[in-house]
């Protein structure tokens, strides 16, 4: 499913994210979203918590170059599980970060929204 709608939503949100704008993800997140991030000690349990977190890092994340690797969608009724690897390159030395991501989307009235996000470092992690 290389052209699945959730992959397109994810690509658009990541493009904004890598330019310091988390609103692309907020615009596609459900009110009951839950979010795991390796930089946080706890899970975020609502859109309001996610928005507060993103507001705290707004404008601080920049990756002039990045790769979305092998996105894969498994659609199950009105749910879709998107998994992919992500590499971001930043700074003048091209420091890279390698990630695994799982996003669970829910479809309501033909609109896909994220209900669960899980980011983790790959075995390669930081380089």
TrEMBL record:
SUPFAM superfamilies cross-referenced by the UniProt entry: NTF2-like (SSF54427)
Boundaries of every SnoaL-like domain copy: 19-123
Superkingdom of this protein's organism: Bacteria
InterPro entries: NTF2-like_dom_sf (IPR032710), SnoaL-like (IPR037401)
Name listed for the protein in its UniProt record: DUF4440 domain-containing protein
Organism of provenance: Rhizobium vallis
């Amino acid at each position: 499913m290389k052209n699945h709608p959730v992959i397109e939503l994810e690509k658009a949100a990541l493009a904004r994210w890598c330019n310091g704008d988390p609103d692309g993800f907020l615009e596609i997140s459900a009110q009951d979203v839950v979010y795991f991030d390796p930089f946080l000690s706890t899970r975020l349990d609502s859109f309001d918590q996610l928005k507060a977190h993103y507001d705290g890092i707004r404008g601080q994340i920049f990756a002039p170059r990045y790769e979305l690797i092998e996105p894969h969608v498994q659609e199950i009724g009105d749910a879709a599980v998107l998994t992919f690897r992500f590499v971001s390159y930043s700074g003048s030395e091209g420091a890279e970060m390698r990630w695994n991501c799982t996003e669970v989307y829910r479809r309501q009235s033909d609109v896909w929204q994220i209900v669960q996000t899980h980011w983790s470092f790959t075995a390669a992690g930081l380089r």
